[in-house]
Amino acid sequence: MQHDKVLILDFGSQYTQLIARRVRELNIYSEIFPFNKIPTNLDEYKAVILSGSPMSVRSDDAFHPELKGIRGVKPMLAVCYGAQYLAHFSGGEVAESNTREYGRANLSFVEEDAFLKNISAGSQVWMSHSDTIKSLPTNGKLLASTHDVKNAAYKIEGETTYAIQFHPEVYHSTDGKQLLENFLVDIANVNPDWTPNAFVGETVEALQEKIGNDKVVLGLSGGVDSSVAAMLLHKAIGENLYCIFVNNGLLRKNEFTDVLEQYKGMGLNVKGVDASARFLDALVGLSDPELKRKAIGNAFIEVFDQEANLIEDVTYLAQGTIYPDIIESVSATGGPSATIKSHHNVGGLPDFMKLKIVEPLKALFKDEVRRVGASMDMDPTLLGRHPFPGPGLAIRILGDITAEKVRILQEVDAVFINGLRDAGLYDKVWQAGAILLPVNSVGVMGDERTYEKCVALRAVESTDGMTADWVNLPYEFLQKTSNDIINKVKGVNRVVYDISSKPPATIEWE
Ligand code: XMP
Fold this sequence. Notes:
Helix content is 30%, strand content 24%. The protein is of the alpha/beta class. The longest helix is centred in the middle third of the chain and has 21 residues, at 289-309.
């Protein structure tokens, strides 16, 4: 890729990934590295951003980045901890703050500078820190203040080094993106040419070069990541991409047939494998969530391996891994550590498959995957699908799984999800689904007493699934959905709505 790159050094701030996203929204490619694992190929990066941190620069174990080859050499923007780090260790002073420095504040300018271009006086910024910069480092020149924070933005004279106490990456900093653009485009001369179209063109070329005439197998899940990965590979190698879409019997109602048809309509070389019976067999008698996950993971590997073996001379396994799956960040407690999340789309295929791996989306965030999909004219309904867990309805049926329970939950889920679509609420919700509880309760239908199942509905707002808030769905909608479920789905006489957020609850119940 011949694009200017920006290096973001992570000091463990909860907002580091947001910095990368904002930079990428400016069509500039950025990568995050832990502050203590600075890449050796620094020449490839046109500018550097230092993140915030939960750590204090005054602490004995304050994080010390090795800025040789960066500071004074490349344009550098230091955010929050970064700004305090520069001050504390380069001739300034940082002390514990005795005023509230959390939340909204308004900027007032002290000095005109290209860094502040198009930022309005009084612009709202987001503060989140407990130490404060008492005096600037050597050659520091104050650019802007807020009511409570005098040294809110400064630069170092004689260098292209800028520092800000607030967080430009969070949406509450209303001109944050403009500020990043001023620094990156105007000051650091970074070329903002990293667009979804450019990504598609270059990725397709790179895939063709890497794969040549070899064959690739890919497990489609019906979700956004594997579908976009498949489209990119399809553009690159056409019929040499063999997609396998496994029905584990735990998908949503009609999902297997509907999505399979959709894939075929996209021109993908896809084989649908209905292995429902095999999965349900593997689950018999299992109630423990982790055992259920394991059984499903193992069954998937067996089925996938068997199918992949039917393709002659396949060399590569493609996966829909995305950037947050592989990103390494700094843990706030216990010092810097690698917290690499394991990728669970494909359940981690074992080495015995002896296939080389290709992951065309591994540099992208989820919203970028969607933008790339849109630039390939993929169906917005497919791109906007809610996340759905690999083990499917098995982890939404609490306790053991039977075909009848799957049927009930598929019906309930369909009423709920179709209802969300009909009410125009589907796209306002990050993820939604129904949970079949291991509870029977008494009801009365007609003149008869019933003793039937209870289901819970769950709808959450989130950006990445790490934290989530329950959604305040309109009462009228809940009322109608509850009526529809109880009237239409045999075996259910009670509906409840889950009003727990994550944390402390999780999105799935198991
Ligand atoms: P939790 O329940 O941990 O879920 O709040 C966070 C997100 O991850 C999804 N999830 C899974 N996805 N395999 C998956 O592929 C799993 O075992 C799994 N468990 C949870 C969940 O649906 C939510 O989007």
